[in-house]
Task: structure prediction
Amino acid sequence: MWKEHSMKIHTPPASPNTSCRTHLGDFVAEFIRKPGTTASLLPSSSHLARVMVRDAGLADAEAVLEYGPGTGVFTPYILRELRPESKFAAIEINPRFASIFKTVHPAVTLFEDSVENVAAICASLQVAGVDCVISGLPWAFFPKSVQISILDQTMRVLKPGGRFITFGYPHSLVLPAAKHLAALLPNYFTTVSKSPIVWLNVPPAFVYRCVR
Ligand SMILES: C[S@@+](CC[C@H](N)C(=O)[O-])C[C@H]1O[C@@H](n2cnc3c(N)ncnc32)[C@H](O)[C@@H]1O
Result:
């Protein structure tokens, strides 16, 4: 079942990213083992995490999902925004990351699964609609068919007016898959905007904010 968010349980430490940084070696190891799904040598930074949650409407959300949390870098920043009664769950395909995530965020509901099964996951939870998806997925490494499948499945659960937040790397925009995603997003969402580049992330990144 969804665990109702509790600010008391989830209040992040003064430096929310610290616990994730201690898993740097795990991230590098998973990149070497599974480059196609990990896609980055390093976890995202606190700088990118702040931009990811900005204007995501989390404070008003009833139900929120995090896609591909990895070691859970974005998670404390999401939890800080949520109301105590908000529902939050994460979906991570990599068993090693899932194990780390459960250690770092024991109070968060985690599905060790592919986000392509998000509709079935929400159905199993008896959740009819999600207000916001915060995605850490590596779109530039996905085949076009997988991009379409994930967005199709996401649309089955995202409420009208719901937000879909994800990030990309400017240097990856030359890749066909990244171009494909950029062309695809306006087919699914009424509004698609891009943040300024977050130069302090390694590598620099930008955030797509999409509204259904
Ligand atoms: C670039 S890493 C980002 C991790 C973390 N969000 C961050 O920013 O540091 C991509 C993450 O997406 C996960 N992932 C890739 N494909 C997935 C899928 N189909 N379903 C769920 N998670 C997936 C990977 O295992 C990895 O944890």
